[in-house]
Design goal:
Helix content of chain C: over 70%
Oligomer: heterotrimer
CATH topology of the domain at 328-346 and 382-547 in chain B: Rossmann fold
Order of helices and strands of chain C: HHHHEEHHHHHHHHHHH
Strand order of the largest sheet of chain B: 6-7-8-3-9-10
Number of helices of chain B: 20
CATH class of the domain at 106-290 in chain C: Mainly Alpha
Distance between the termini of chain B: 12 Å
CATH architecture of the domain at 106-290 in chain C: Orthogonal Bundle
Chains: A alpha+beta, B alpha/beta, C mainly alpha
Radius of gyration of chain B: 26 Å
Largest sheet of chain B: 6 strands, mixed
Strand content of chain B: 25-35%
Chain lengths: ~375, ~550, ~325
């Protein structure tokens, strides 16, 4: 029915006309998606931020100035130090010497607290790519190179302060990034596996199977998740090694987190199944396997990417809630949620408000993943009119 | 029949712009016309001509980012003239005109009424917006209006919701609402496009009748020349936002002045006569014989999963397609014609009946009872062309990938051979051979339909099921696609099962016609017999309801 | 309509059974059985262990028999109002749960109402005046609120009130009202305390509801029926409230289905941080100390609360949407 509606020619039509015809006409879906995505400035910035966060997670050992477990009771709740670039040299003049200021430590007799006062006379020289505590990169390659650190190992270096045991919060947060972000990624990977399989079966076959799977999804979505997660997490033997707990938490989170992905996959499959171009392919005599892989899946990829991008922040939030409550990851593993356990103590945070830093990390990570996911979702179907 | 009167509405140099992508699209450009009291002025044009935008501009309903950037819309009043453009799109002044002096009905009766309010609520509200009148009196008037538009049982209908009515009934309710304050002008924006042809005829005659009764001026927007011929006093032809031609309806049809109008009428009139027949004669040998084919969908699964009722989408259908023949299937929406086409290729599995098909090698198979594996050998011979050229091509595959897909599964050609074959096919359907690496989004509707046809004839086609292949195309493109299909028929000796709701396309293209209603066949016959001398009552109604693009044929035409 | 409600209630039965199985699974998960744990605990605290009593307990819960029998023994008790024994508190679970659950239900309900009464007008305004200052502020707030875990928000609030106002904001009642009977003063005391958990709990949900209302309404604003109503000459504000908002309200009502579970999840964490006398902290403690009958009872009742909430929203939806009521 050739009827003009009130709508002006769609963006895409104009896009086609504007852009060099030859290039866009031969442009596949990813080019078009990227084109549409690029217009979403906030999503573009978020892509950059997310990329950065994952880089931090990847090179945590190198980026962290110290070992996350290294403690020094002398520096309990030591406040953040500020970086200075020039210092008095021996000649009495100023010279270029990146440094942080040392502390003057006094003991408040009334409250039995250490009181830290920056001491401008004590400077701790710092540098980039310094030799520091040895570590094994990704548990494989031994090294002792750190991106930033004090030239003298024994000197205090706390850019964003120290915790109750005098551990460097920056190093702990950087290592927490790896755990928190990887929980998100791997957990979503697991959810994807379950979600794709069940959602795909549900949407492709329809009928009784679909109805049964739909009931299960509806049910899981109606259960308050945190109590259930806690119930499952509480059943974990307390004496499990940290790595085993890590994977157990992963499984618990993704057991419940797959429903959204299944819903997206099922919805797309269901609508694709009756799309003319899929029926056309079937009438070309295409095999069932090829029909799914070649004709249906390409329409799904971008939607799946959007769904998983939006699922990662939920995983991160869930992990941090669980760990915060003490039923998730256990020390010595550090995640943002584990670090935030320290904030439960009101006295601690009044004395050391920098303990909130991992919380800020959560907010930034979740925020940018949400923007990114929204951007991908909006760009996911560049052919929609 | 039209007394020349002072115009009630004068549009002067109207321009409506849509700023998009730092560009400005002129949806309507410097457009002027006058609408006289008591006349029906049709605005006709193809998609994108700006006719709907013009209609909306008159009520200040142009949606953002569209904007009236120039011109006047002068509505005559007792004291002189009001410029609607100057009133802006908000405020009391424009609201007093909307609904009260100028009312509008829309294209989509399904969505133009609120789904969560009763019909009565919406009509009574329209009355009470403009008149101080008690709820009871307004209700009485609303019931009278529903009665006037021939909605049965009007008082009860007031308390019902729009989704409880059929499309035709909803459009009647919409008309009743538009008429509730006795407007002097009625703007009708494609009010029958979404309706079946028999419903369209009823609505058209209702609008005409109400216009006579009330002496309203009607501005009627349509893309259908047949509708124009049936209803217009005067006609304006629009193309890309500009007026091409304006004339009385008889003048326009009998003596069009502008080339565009002539081309438009030419494509319409071409479809009014049977087209050239293919060069190969129809043989007496059947290629497919459908026997008692039925497809029943279970409805409302009751307790224990036993269906309480069945939807009989196809109900005992029998007919034969001979080799080289084109059999048309015509019917209104819900007649089961599309389902029939798809069932023949087992997109849906029939619940009963047989589809005997004679293969290229002479063997006979019953498609209705073939296994999946056995079906595979048929997919190269029996092909399908779809209605919507936008959804039938995978947007994520290149033209080469799309057309080569049947070759890949039905032949053992090498990549090189397929590449050559696809180039040949593209040339054959009238497209450049070098477009294989492009994606469907680079092509217009007509070009996409050609690509669909290339895919259909890729292997060794013998029978093609064409499901409304021209319905989504502008009228000027339809006969081109049909002519291409006919040429291919001559070349390959194809047989067609041609499904359409449009009797003129059927007449142009088919040898025999099957008329379907509610899943059953009501009449089968030669195309000439069905069109000129239908036997069954339903066929008669269907044929007579089709608006013919000839104003002399209408009931009130002057001798 | 009545048939619709009955159908819905029938539909709840399998869900209820599923939740009970889930709760029972959680009870069963920890290694060892309840009675042995109880006996070990008694022995530890130096009390004499009465083996007759232990045997009768074993019999009561069907321990040692197969899981199905245990389930039916447990659920049979639940139906009669017996949720089993809390070994940590050494009293029947029933006595512990109801008061706490009532508080949870109260807080959840109040939060739900508050969330709706904020998100509805803001969402509507945001959609109608898309890209206005208010829309940008609402959108920015929404994204920020959705990204902030509510335990973090609760702690921040604690921190701010302690640092800046020198008062601690935990609990639901001032000490003098905790055991007082019902009075207007007690209600007022409740309100002065409850706004904090309601604020913390409701923020993220309000944010997503604003987004949902905005998106729903944006979809509806350009539907033909809106244009048709405008062509009748309706004033714009009345038009938007009568038609598109009314239609967009329907999917909004059905958000209860996931908002309520999220609220109950959040309530657990927030109550723990703010130390409220609701189900949350007790459930957490029960889980940590593997006091499984108590934990199971809470999980079961939480599920029941969600089901009841969903039923109410279904009924509201049927009242609001004739398409559901009449089909």
């Amino acid at each position: 029915m050739s009827v003009d509606t009130q709508l002006p020619p769609s963006d895409d039509d104009l896009l086609d006309r504007q852009i060099d015809a030859g290039r866009m006409q031969a442009a596949g879906q990813w080019v078009l998606i990227w084109h549409k995505f690029r217009k979403h400035k906030l999503a573009l910035v978020s892509l950059f931020v997310v990329g950065l966060i994952y880089l931090v997670a990847l090179f945590a050992e190198f980026l962290a100035p110290a070992d996350p477990g290294k403690f020094d009771p002398r520096y309990t709740f030591a406040p953040p130090q500020s970086i200075g670039l020039f210092a008095d040299d021996r000649q009495g003049g100023q010279s270029f010497q990146p440094h942080v200021t040392g502390y003057k430590i006094t003991l408040d007799v009334k409250s039995f607290r250490r009181v830290f006062v920056p001491d401008p006379d004590v400077i701790v020289p710092i540098g980039f790519f310094v030799q520091g505590q040895p570590y094994k990169m990704w548990g494989l390659f031994p090294s002792n190179l750190h991106f930033i650190g004090p030239l003298d190992q024994s000197q205090p270096f706390f850019l964003i302060g120290a915790d109750r045991l005098g551990r460097d919060l920056l190093s702990r947060t950087i290592h927490g990034t790896r755990i928190s972000m990887s929980i998100g990624l791997v957990g979503v990977g697991l959810s994807l596996l379950i979600g794709m399989t069940l959602g795909g079966i549900s949407g492709y076959y329809g009928g009784m199977v679909d109805r049964a799977i739909q009931r299960v999804i509806e049910f899981i979505r109606s259960v308050p998740t945190i109590p259930l997660w806690l119930g499952l997490a509480a059943a974990m033997p307390k004496d499990w090694p940290p790595l085993q707990i890590y994977f157990a938490i992963l499984i618990i989170l993704s057991l419940i987190g797959w429903t959204e992905i299944a819903r997206v996959v099922r919805g797309r499959f269901l609508s694709l199944r009756s799309d003319d171009f899929v029926i056309a392919a079937r009438l070309d005599g295409v095999s069932e396997f090829r029909l799914i892989m070649r004709h249906m899946m390409p329409s799904l990829y971008s939607h799946i990417i959007a769904a998983i991008t939006l699922a990662i922040p939920n995983m991160i939030l869930a992990e941090s809630s669980l760990s915060f409550l003490g039923l998730g990851l256990q020390p010595p593993i550090v995640s943002w949620g584990v670090l935030l356990q320290d904030t439960q103590n009101l006295r601690a945070i009044t004395q050391a408000p920098w303990l909130f830093v991992p919380g800020i990390c959560i907010v930034i990570a979740v925020l940018s993943l949400n923007f990114l996911g929204d951007g991908v979702r909006d760009a996911a179907d560049p052919y929609a009119k | 029949m039209t007394e020349i009167q002072a115009p009630i509405l004068k549009v002067r140099n109207l321009t409506v712009d849509f700023p998009i992508h730092k560009q400005v699209v002129h949806a309507v450009k410097d457009f002027s016309f006058e609408l006289n009291r008591g006349e029906t002025l049709c605005v006709v044009g193809e998609s994108g001509s700006g006719k709907s935008v013009t209609a909306r501009a008159i009520l200040q309903l142009v949606a953002a980012p569209g904007e009236i950037t120039n011109g006047q819309i002068l509505l005559s009043t007792e004291t002189g003239e009001t410029d609607i453009v100057a009133l802006g799109n908000r405020g009391e002044a424009i609201r007093k005109i909307r609904g009260r002096r100028i009312a509008m009905i829309f294209q989509e009766p399904m969505t133009s009424l609120s789904p969560v309010h009763t019909i009565g609520h919406q009509i009574i509200e329209a009355i009470r917006l403009h008149e101080t009148i008690s709820k009871e009196d307004a209700r009485k008037r609303a019931a009278a209006l529903l009665d006037r538009v021939r909605i049965p049982n009007p008082d009860a209908a007031l308390d019902r919701y729009s989704f409880e009515f059929s499309g035709g009934m909803r459009q009647r309710a919409m008309i009743a609402m538009a008429l509730s304050c006795n407007p002097e002008i009625l703007i009708a924006d494609e009010p029958t496009t979404a309706l079946d042809v028999t419903t369209q005829a009823e609505i058209l005659s209702l609008i005409r009748e109400l216009q006579r009764d009330r002496g309203m001026a009607v501005l009627f927007i349509t893309h259908d020349m047949g509708v124009v011929a049936q209803i217009a006093d005067r006609v304006m032809v629009m193309f890309r936002g500009e007026k091409v031609e304006e004339a009385g309806v008889f003048d326009l049809f009998e003596n069009p002045q502008q080339p565009y109008t002539r081309a438009l009428l030419g494509s319409v009139l071409k479809l009014e006569t049977p087209g050239p027949r293919p060069t190969r004669p129809v043989s007496e040998q059947p290629i497919a014989q459908i026997k008692d084919l039925s497809l029943h969908f279970p409805l409302n699964l009751g307790i224990l999963g036993k269906p309480a009722a069945y939807l009989k989408a196809i109900d005992g259908v029998s007919f034969t397609i001979n080799q080289g023949e084109t059999v048309g299937v015509v019917g209104e929406s819900g007649s089961g014609k599309t389902t029939l086409g798809r069932t023949l290729l087992r997109v849906y599995n029939p619940t009963a009946g047989q589809v005997n098909y004679w293969q290229g090698d002479g063997s006979e198979v019953d498609i209705a009872n073939l296994s999946r594996r056995q079906m595979k050998s048929l997919y190269g011979e029996v092909r399908m062309i779809f209605q919507d050229p936008h959804s039938s091509l995978n947007p994520r595959m290149t033209i080469y990938q799309i057309i080569s897909e049947p070759l890949r599964t039905n032949t053992d050609m090498s990549e090189r051979q397929m590449l050559n074959r696809v180039e040949d096919l593209l040339t054959r359907v009238g497209l450049p051979a070098d477009i294989g690496d492009r994606y469907p989004h680079a092509f217009s509707g007509g070009q996409r339909q050609r690509i669909s046809i290339a895919r259909a004839i890729a292997v060794r086609p013998r029978l093609i099921i064409a499901d409304e292949p021209t319905s989504a195309l502008d009228v000027s493109l339809r006969h081109q696609v049909l002519d291409l299909m006919r040429d291919l028929q001559s070349e390959f000796g194809l047989s067609y099962l041609f499904i359409s709701h449009d009797i003129s396309v059927i007449r142009y293209f088919c040898d025999r016609v099957v008329v379907m209603k509610n899943g059953k066949i009501v009449e089968i016959g030669d195309v000439a017999q069905i069109c000129e001398n239908p036997q069954h009552d339903y066929t008669k109604t269907l044929i007579s309801a089709v608006p013919r693009p000839n104003p002399r044929l209408r009931a009130d035409a002057p001798a | 309509m009545l048939i619709y409600i009955l159908k819905r209630m029938l539909g709840m039965i399998p869900a209820m059974i599923a939740i009970s199985i889930l709760a029972f699974t959680v009870i069963q998960l920890p290694p060892g059985d309840y009675v042995s744990t109880y006996a070990a605990q008694l022995a530890q605290s130096g009390e004499t262990v009465d083996s007759d009593m232990l045997n009768s307990l074993r019999d009561r819960y069907g321990l040692g028999e197969n899981v199905v029998v245990q389930y039916f023994k447990w659920i049979g008790g639940v139906v009669q109002g017996d949720f089993g024994q809390s070994f940590e508190w050494n009293q029947p679970v029933t006595e512990l749960v109801w008061g706490r659950m009532a508080m949870t239900a109260l807080i959840s309900f109040v939060t739900l109402i508050v969330m709706w009464s904020f998100s509805l007008p803001i969402g509507v305004y945001s959609a109608v005046r898309q890209y206005s200052a208010v829309d940008y502020i609402a959108t920015a707030f929404a994204f920020l609120a959705m990204a902030t875990p509510n335990f973090l928000l609760a702690i921040l609030l604690l921190y701010v009130s302690t640092m800046w106002f020198g008062v601690s904001v935990g609990g639901l009642f001032s000490p003098e009202f905790v055991n007082a009977g019902f009075s207007l003063a007690k209600v007022w005391d409740f309100i002065t305390h409850a706004w904090i958990p309601v604020f913390v709990l409701g923020t993220a949900g309000t944010a997503s509801l604003i987004r949902i209302m905005r998106a729903n309404l944006l979809d509806e604003l350009h539907k033909p029926y809106v244009e048709a109503a405008r062509s009748k000459g309706m004033p714009e504000t009345r038009l938007i409230l009568t038609y598109p908002v009314r239609v967009a309200l329907n999917p909004f009502i059905s958000t209860v289905g996931w908002v309520l579970p999220a609220l109950i999840s959040g309530e657990l964490i927030v109550s723990t941080v703010l130390n409220l006398p609701t189900a949350g902290p007790l459930l957490l403690q029960a889980l940590k100390s593997q006091d499984m009958y108590l934990a199971g009872a809470f999980i079961l009742l939480n599920g029941g609360l969600v089901l009841i909430g969903t039923l109410i929203s279904d009924i509201l939806l049927a009242i609001s949407d004739p398409r559901i009521r009449l089909s």
